[in-house]
Amino acid sequence: MLLLVDLDGVVYRGREPVPGVAAVLADRVARGDEVVYVTNNSMHYRADYVTRLTGMGAPVVADRIVSSARATALYLAEHEPPIRRVLVVGGRGLRRELEDVGLVVVDARETAEQLAEREDEAARTGGLPVDPFELAGRPDAVVVGLDPGLTYRTLAFAADAIRAGARFVATNRDPVYPSERGLRPGAGAIVAALEATTGVTPVSIGKPAPFLLEEAARAVGRRAADAVMIGDGLLTDLAAAHAVGARSVLMLTGVTTRAQLEELPASQRPDAVAADAAELALVLDQLGGS
Ligand SMILES: [Mg+2]
């Protein structure tokens, strides 16, 4: 089987591993399954996950970690008409993923600062106003992920590029990002701000859209419809599995309670539910027919 495995709430919760899950996945790989990790998190480079997952005993190589940043890069690399230059609102991990597939990356925050300096100078000297789109080198797309250093100028600059005709691409639309200190605005909150000010709706790559799971399956030469998605989120993991026609296992080790599961209409239910690693091992045996 091809197992597409969500990370936070399934393999770990914040800093803590979910007991036994890494071992279950290692056992599945030993018996011939393939595991690809899929996460909406857009901030990290895929190699950053390897040490952490290896330390937990999970089977992993870098190219089997498909974050929304990596999936966005893979999606753009195949895009028709071709996209070569991207203006990026997001962190270093997102920029690295985009560079890895050969895109020319322009950092929105840095360029917005340059614009502000040039505008100050023009005001002082009576020079001509600066065109933000030209200053960014006429990007083909604006790519938006979670940017903890977001500034108002960055938003204004990215909005200008979208209005000038750059495609608007969201890594994901998660409204909140759970941090150690509580809920923080997620990439989706930044995307919503840009959508509100431009009136343009982006294509979004992460779950619940189908693209992340499609790119993850493609990374191992498979079809997402043939996969089993293992996740803890109803509106993200289960919805994405449904969108690509994959089977799904809902883990009750993360954000979803059994009461929430029971409120789901029959058409949105997962194929199986697991409260812990032992139940996961059991349901995977059933789904795998062994
Ligand atoms: Mg999760």
Please provide a written account of the structure.
The protein has 290 residues and is of the alpha/beta class. The protein folds into two domains: 2-40 and 208-288, Rossmann fold (3-Layer(aba) Sandwich); 82-204, 3-Layer(aba) Sandwich (Rossmann fold). Helix content is 41%, strand content 20%. The protein is built from twelve helices and 15 strands. The strands form four sheets. Strands 5-4-1-13-14-15 form a six-stranded parallel sheet, sandwiched between helices. Strands 7-6-8-9-12 form a five-stranded parallel sheet, sandwiched between helices. The protein has a two-stranded antiparallel ribbon with strand order 2-3. Helix 7 (152-163) crosses helix 8. It starts with a strand and ends with a helix. The model has no long low-confidence stretch (mean pLDDT 96). It binds magnesium ion. Magnesium ion is lined by residues 6, 8-10, 231-233, 254.
Percent of sequence in beta strands: 15-25%
Helix content: 40-55%
Main sheet record = 6 strands, parallel
CATH architecture of the largest domain, please?
Answer: 3-Layer(aba) Sandwich
C-alpha termini separation: 11 Å
Tell me the overall shape: elongated
**What is the third-level CATH name, the topology of the largest domain?**
Rossmann fold
Count of folded domains? 2
The low-confidence parts are: none
Using only C-alpha atoms, the radius of gyration works out to 20 Å
Number of strands: 15
List the bound ligands: magnesium ion
Order of helices and strands: EEEHEHEHEHEHHEHEEEHEHEHEHEH
The strand line-up of the biggest sheet is: 5-4-1-13-14-15
Q: Average pLDDT value?
A: 96
- Per DSSP, the total helix count is 12
CATH class of the largest domain: Alpha Beta
* CATH superfamily annotation of the largest domain: HAD superfamily/HAD-like
